[in-house]
Amino acid sequence: MKEKIFILEDEQDMLDLLSDILSREGFEVQKFYSGINALNEIYKSKPDLILMDLMLPDLSGLQLCKKLRDNPETAHIPIIILTSRTDEYDILNAFNFGCSDYITKPFNEKILIARIKACLMFKSNVEKNEIIKFNEMEINPAQYEVYLKNKLIDFTPLEFRLLYFLASNQGKVFKREQIFQYIYENDSNRSDRAIDILVNRIRKKLKDYGDLVETVYGVGYRFKILEAK
Fold first, then answer.
1. Domains of the chain (ranges, CATH numbers)
2. Cα gap 44→182, rounded to integer Å
């Protein structure tokens, strides 16, 4: 069965271009100019991934992102923002609202496809796996939720993705290059430092519970071995 992707874009030429690119890759594509119309259809048919611009005529991309993340039935759907906005504030704001990835225009077609496939692969892996439970820690991939000592810890989608990847392979050491490939695929616009930044953000959020993400100097990172629940 073809994976279904919804495209939300307010420029008709760009909407048609994206539709052609994804259709050639074998995806089932549905196009939307209106954010509200798209939202109603998303609730009904649950696409496998959403690719959208930040600027829509009736509902901003961030508003739509928040509505989807706040709804348990759509919280798991990967959302990729594709926009001409390159300001750091816009990028961080999009991740805070729950987007899975952020791509700027003009875009490289091969990188766009690679990152779409990476998001779909992660979604597939999440759907196959049950909740990860350690001693006082619970990671729920379906809801993108992390609980420690029954306290909900807020993670952005990228932070969650990295934490889930490491926790799923408890005790195994991964090189930065391996983690980078899993998180960002073939995005040459990012450096390996992006992984270090993500790890530091995760550590800050988990600081009251010890160093769960350990550095293996000269190699990379691993998730600390914990007692299974």
1. 4-126 (3.40.50.2300), 129-223 (1.10.10.10)
2. 31
